């Protein structure tokens, strides 16, 4: 099988490429990535000259390149996106450009080239926010209520993907997953930011009162879920993917990281809240469990220990990302914390 992967130099995409080459040795992967600030070929250096892997630097909004790389592909797994909520609040337009227009260009090319599956990676943020005390969870039938520019752009892309199935019969699947964590995640996101700041002896910024809740999914569990969907999922369907955490607040997550690293809780710094900050995400993943026999392989604490260990071992990897342009972003976001 020949697979086009978009955004494969980012966090989840690069984990997916490693996973797929290990588990599907007969397949050929082509990775199309623009290499924005979030794209990093170092994530893929071990497989850079693998006989079944090819990299093309390019923008999913560039229709010519997209049509070129789509030729002869059987399957598309679409990860490429602007992915950080805080950046979407600062600069929303690029989120529409990449996440909506880029997806549309890919859908057109996929249709023209008659791919047998277009899998779209989406997020639970399209469903909006649960109340902190609410017991229900997001599922495949939850209404769309995006509340940040990032979530709005992902919701729009989901609608286009579904429209290409309904209108043109493009064989699509969509997955809406919760917060991923694990190796190769950019230090702009909460868990890697906390780990790397603590390793540098810096404070960890916690928005608002730290009571917001996320549902944490280890990236390798996510990759196995995508595998199950590609292998056994039904076209036209959506699958929700989540982890094993129940109502864990951001503050509790940070305290766990501090404990693993043997640091002091005095390093927690409460900072002004994110505008429109979603209170809580929680995913009901019983559909993918019951229909495709997927579940996370380990609990949050086990995966968190492994993740912290990875960042401790790969200091030069994240130091290079905490460069001048990251510092500039950091100062703007956290007001010289
Ligand atoms: P990331 O920011 O780490 O990586 C995004 C990748 O896309 C980068 O390699 C970047 O260079 C590339 N890219 C960006 N714009 C591009 C363009 N115009 N053309 C080609 N490549 C481009 O993101 P991630 O965390 O790996 O997320 C991957 C996907 O999963 C995204 O679609 C995101 O919305 C979704 N998602 C992420 C999470 C999470 O917790 N990280 C959770 C749910 C869904
Ligand atoms: O739910 C899936 C989504 O998870 C993905 O679609 C997004 O691509 C991904 O970035 C992530 O979005 P979040 O906004 O939930 O992730 P982030 O790591 O930015 O923040 C996690 C929580 O921690 C959130 O409640 C905000 C809070 N936070 C974040 C940062 C960066 C802080 O308190 N301090 C921080 O410095």
UniProtKB/TrEMBL annotation:
InterPro entries on file: dTDP_Gluc_deHydtase (IPR005888), NAD(P)-bd_dom (IPR016040), NAD(P)-bd_dom_sf (IPR036291)
Keywords, ordered alphabetically: Lyase, NAD
Biological process, per Gene Ontology: nucleotide-sugar metabolic process
Obligatory cofactor(s): NAD(+)
Enzyme Commission identifier(s): 4.2.1.46
UniProt domain NAD(P)-binding: residue ranges: 4-304
MF term (GO), any: dTDP-glucose 4,6-dehydratase activity
Catalytic activity, as annotated: dTDP-alpha-D-glucose = dTDP-4-dehydro-6-deoxy-alpha-D-glucose + H2O
PANTHER family given in the database record: DTDP-D-GLUCOSE 4,6-DEHYDRATASE-RELATED
Recorded family membership: Belongs to the NAD(P)-dependent epimerase/dehydratase family. dTDP-glucose dehydratase subfamily.
Descriptive protein name: dTDP-glucose 4,6-dehydratase
């Amino acid at each position: 099988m020949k697979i086009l992967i978009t955004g494969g130099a980012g966090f989840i995409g690069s984990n997916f490429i490693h996973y797929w080459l290990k588990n599907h040795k007969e397949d050929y992967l082509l990775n199309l990535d623009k290499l924005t600030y979030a794209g990093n070929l170092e994530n893929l250096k071990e497989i850079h000259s693998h006989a079944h892997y090819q990299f093309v630097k390019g923008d999913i909004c560039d229709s010519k390149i997209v049509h070129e790389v789509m030729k002869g592909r059987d399957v598309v797994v679409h990860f490429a996106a602007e992915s950080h909520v805080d950046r979407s609040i600062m600069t929303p337009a690029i989120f529409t450009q990449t996440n909506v227009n880029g997806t549309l260009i890919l859908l057109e090319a996929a249709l023209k080239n008659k791919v047998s599956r277009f899998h779209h990676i989406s997020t639970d943020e399209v469903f909006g926010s649960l109340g902190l005390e609410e017991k229900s969870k997001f599922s495949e039938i939850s209404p769309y209520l995006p509340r940040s520019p990032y979530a709005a752009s992902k919701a729009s892309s989901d609608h286009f993907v579904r429209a290409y199935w309904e209108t043109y019969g493009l064989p699509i699947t969509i997955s809406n997953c919760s917060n991923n964590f694990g190796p190769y995640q950019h230090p702009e996101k909460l868990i890697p930011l906390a780990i790397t700041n603590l390793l540098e002896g810096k404070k960890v910024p916690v928005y608002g009162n730290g009571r917001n809740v996320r549902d944490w999914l280890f990236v390798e569990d996510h990759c196995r879920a995508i595998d199950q969907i590609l292998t056994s999922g039904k076209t036209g369907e959506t699958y929700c993917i989540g982890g094993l955490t129940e109502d864990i607040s951001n503050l509790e997550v940070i305290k766990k990281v501090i404990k693993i690293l043997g640091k002091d809780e005095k390093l927690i710094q409460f900072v002004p809240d994110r505008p429109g900050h979603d209170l809580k995400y929680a995913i009901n993943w019983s559909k993918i469990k019951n229909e495709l026999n997927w579940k996370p392989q380990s609990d949050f604490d086990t995966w968190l220990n492994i993740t912290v260990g990875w960042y401790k071992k790969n200091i030069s990897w994240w130091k290079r990302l905490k460069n001048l342009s990251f510092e500039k972003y950091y100062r703007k976001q956290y007001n010289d914390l």
